[in-house]
Each structure stands twice: as structure tokens, then as C-alpha cells.
Amino acid sequence: MKNALLATAIIAAMPFGLALPTPAAAQSPQLEQACVAVAKNFLLIPDVKTGIVQSFPELDPPGARLTYSTRQDAKPTDFTNEIDCEFGKGGPPFTLLRFCISKTCYGPGEQEPENRCRFEEVKALMERKK
């Protein structure tokens, strides 16, 4: 009851038209685009269609997660692939720390040499675009 009264008081005290921030307000379009660039470089495709996109600039390490499709005429049911990206900081220039596509991760500490190599390749491509 106490929380309901507090919420009512806060809403009543707010000027007309002012709303509480939504969870999406914390999203970072730049971080999201950096993760899209990782996907394009890894998949060797010029365009990735994105579905749900989430970014977390406030976390340590900052990152982004998105669903995607490589189909040009993608429908909502086509966004079944997922990529997670981790970066050195939440703002540009972004330094790629690690990324995972589906259930396979690529980073400097991965056990599989091929996964470490693919990470280094994508990281180098990302650094060239700075």
C-alpha cells in the first residue's frame, strides 16, 4: 500500500507530458551498430537484417545482443539467429573483447585455435573501420 501511495504521489507531481524513462532509454544505438558490424564481418555479408536488439552500455563489459537474419526479405519468424558482443567500453572507439554466435564463442581466451583466429580476424576488421 505504501508503494502504491508513493507511486501515485510521484505521478501526480510530474508535469504533464513528462514520463518516466523506459528500459529502452538505456539502449546505445552505437553499441548496437558495432555488434551489427561484428556480425557482417564474421558472416561475410554486406547486410544483416536485425530483429530484437538490446544493448547494455552500463555493464562491465558493455555489450549488445541481437537476433538477425541473412535473408533480404526476412519476416519476423526468420530472426532465429543470435549474436552477443562484448566491448572494452560503452562508447566509441569500440574495442571488441569477445562475441558469440549461436552457442559458439570467439575471443582471445577460447580453447579452439580456429575460434581464436576468427576472433582476431573480426577484431582487425573492426579496428580498420575506426
What does this 3D model show about the protein?
By secondary structure, this protein is an alpha+beta fold. 33% of the residues lie in helices and 24% in strands. It contains three helices and five strands. Helix 2 (29-43) packs across helix 3 (113-128). The protein is globular and about 35 Å long. Residues 1-25 have low confidence and may be disordered.
Q: Report how far the terminal alpha carbons are from each other.
A: 53 Å
- What is the spatial order of strands in the main beta sheet? 1-2-3-4-5
- Class computed from helices, strands and strand pairing: alpha+beta
Taken as a percent bin, the fraction of beta residues is 15-25%
SSE ordering: HHEEEEEH
The helicity comes to 25-40%
Backbone CA Rg: 19 Å
Mean pLDDT: 83
Q: Which consecutive residue ranges, at least 5 long each, have pLDDT under 50?
A: 1-25
**Molecular shape:** globular
Q: Would you report the number of β strands?
A: 5
Please outline the helices and strands.
Elements: H1 2-13, H2 29-43, E1 49-56, E2 63-69, E3 81-87, E4 96-101, E5 104-106, H3 113-128
Antiparallel strand pairs: 1-2, 2-3, 3-4, 4-5
Helix pairs in contact: 2-3
